[in-house]
Specification:
Layout lengths: L1 H27 L5 H31 L1
Length: 65
């Protein structure tokens, strides 16, 4: 009975360690970084579009003078 309990506990620990390893591997491959990637992409799009609008306004002022 005691040996069976020990074997079951070893199996639970092994399965838990394997799940943790798989989560860490997925995070290292970038699956866990999607919020950061999303925010940085939106920031880049906002910045580029703002600069484009500013440049367009500047060009319009240059053309009007």
């Amino acid at each position: 009975m005691g040996k069976q309990v020990k074997e079951e506990r070893k199996r639970e620990v092994f399965v838990g360690e394997r799940e943790i390893y798989q989560k860490n591997l997925a995070y290292k491959q970038g699956e866990g970084l999607w919020p950061l990637k999303l925010v940085s992409t939106l920031y880049a799009v906002f910045t580029i579009s703002s600069l484009a609008l500013l440049y367009g306004d500047h060009q319009q002022e240059v053309n009007n003078t």
